[in-house]
Amino acid sequence: MYIAILAITFSCQGEDSSLEKEMYQKLQSIKTADKADEPIAESDSLALSLVDYYEHQGSKLKLAEAYYYAGRVFYERRDFTKSLHYYKKAVAALPHCDTPDLEGVIYSQIGYVFSCQDLSEEAVTAFKQSYQFCKNQKDTLGMIYGLRDWGKELGDHGKYNEARRLLLESIQLAKAKKIDYLYYGNKSNLAGLYCKLQDYPKAKAEINEALTCVYGPDSSGVLATAASIYMTIGMVDSAEYYSKQLLKIGTIYARCSANERLAEIALKRGQAKEALHYLTVYKKLNDSINETKNTETVAKINALYNYQRQEQENAELRESNQRIYFYLTVACFVILTLAFIFIAVYLYYTKHKDTKSLRSEILEQAKKWQQTQEEKALSEERKKQIQECDICKKFNNFADNSMTFAPNITDKDWQELEQVINTVCPRFTERLENLCDISATERKICLLRKIDIAPVKVANLLNKSKQAISSTRERLYEKSFGQKGSPTQWDDYLQSL
């Protein structure tokens, strides 16, 4: 994360009183924890005490910092309305102090807030502002992050060409400054973008380079991108390897996708037991993610209301009766407790029911998949048997030489070919005749296509045009199924008999 790496430097003014020193030390402690990427979500009381203090005394510079770190705390708590409120207060305080470098950081964080709330246009605007502030200050590190965040946001919403340009520019800057973790991390982002563009050779090349230097905080994202790309391009063993790595170190989202991918691989290999295991884990993780998303959705809807209510209550508490406040608090607690118990019970029974249904569905899918594989194998074996027959070889020879001279195909040849096909594929011609009325010529076309003689060669053997052969197959499909179809659809049906 940008904020975990970028050091924000401010000049320090000497504090005279012990309270000033205490508040200054608290400000430094929250700054240090945030830059070290330590959890600060539980530091809301500390952040608000700093805001309250510097709003009434102290420098405007420290007030801007206090607002900023209050925004950071509420962002970590997923309270985006409060977070945005304090970020905007920090921006408003900045013109009164000489800290242009902080402005780029704040707008970057504002972009993250908008992105988390699916406000793409607002997020893009904030990331562009962040990049521009960093560019004006010749802050290369900030520019790299700004271009990356800007590009990723555009890529997530389908604007691939512009996203690619921004990511490439970010990569070039990182390479020029020899910032390896950003260079290789952005290679992974670019690989994911190429995958969305279905440019798989480039996606593979970029992710292969990214995997040579997997940076700690970005490991989950890089490995998830690699697994997805390798699965898409058919490198199943590589996709399986990186998916299993994600089971150890991935985020909950990455582990969820990894289990789904591993289940798909297991099903393709006919490993129903392993597929069921992975899908069970996937379902559990997916339920957890959906539960979190639902909670955050409700929080987004009510965030502004809750914040305004809290501000109002803070004003009323100084004037209202403490007893009334106590009763309201108890009532809210009871209601929330009952609601929590109801939701917990409901989710428990729903999850139990869904798990049983999923297990049955997976077993059924595994059986169907196995049956399909057996049918494919039988079809291939029959085709091989037909092709190995002398009469089939004879007709293939006729077809290969049909452009040079007219073949002399006798009725006996046709009868022998039909007999061979009916032997390998029982009742082939009988099923054709039961499906629709079929002429002698149509019968011959079906026999020749059954042994995979190309349509143009079929036309030569029967002294017909290629278009006539195609029209006949279309007509046969329509007569048989009562709807229009292509020649290829008819051929596929013949091969299934």
Automatic annotation (TrEMBL):
Transmembrane segments: 324-349
Localisation per UniProt entry: Cytoplasm
TPR repeats: 64-97
Gene3D superfamilies linked: Tetratricopeptide repeat domain (1.25.40.10)
InterPro entries: Bac_ResReg_Asp_Phosphatase, TPR-like_helical_dom_sf, TPR_rpt
Family named by the database record: Belongs to the Rap family.
Name of the featured protein: Tetratricopeptide repeat protein
Organism, scientific name: Xylanibacter ruminicola
Lineage of producing organism: Bacteria, Pseudomonadati, Bacteroidota, Bacteroidia, Bacteroidales
